[in-house]
């Protein structure tokens, strides 16, 4: 039996309980005119795995990106940040997947990579849908 969770587009609500983790691009860019365009992703959000996340942006298949989500309720949305390709940083800081998916999560101040935290926060705020 499969269980699907309806996830809304991200709004400022996710900032209250935001958490960050690793999303992997599982497809190349595609454009289905009648359907959607962008890349597919998968990531672990603490209470389960999102296997068919989808977002349009400048992503490369197989690369890993920083994703922000509401740690209390995933239905409030998530946002994959295309400006923060963390593939090389994961290796540098010895962060490896459990089997095939990363089981890690950080609050903004505890992200271990050498990115300016204010740049990450700015990027999130600029890409949220207004309520």
List keywords for this structure.
alpha+beta, single chain, 16% helix, six-stranded antiparallel β-sheet, 131 residues, globular, 6 strands, 3 helices
What does this protein structure show overall?
With 131 residues, the protein is of the alpha+beta class. The protein is built from three helices and six strands, in the order H-E-E-E-E-E-E-H-H.
List how many beta strands DSSP finds. 6
Give start-end ranges of low-pLDDT stretches: none
Distance between the termini: 34 Å
The value of Rg in angstroms is: 14 Å
Which class do the helix and strand fractions yield?
alpha+beta
Q: Note the run of SSEs as H and E.
A: HEEEEEEHH
| Helix content class | 10-25%
**How would a textbook summarize the main sheet?**
6 strands, antiparallel
Mean pLDDT, all residues: 85
- Outline type: globular
Q: Which range does the strand content fall in?
A: 25-35%
Number of helices: 3
| Oligomerization category of the chains in this entry | single chain
Could you write a compact summary of the structure shown?
With 131 residues, the protein is an alpha+beta fold. The protein is built from three helices and six strands, in the order αββββββαα.
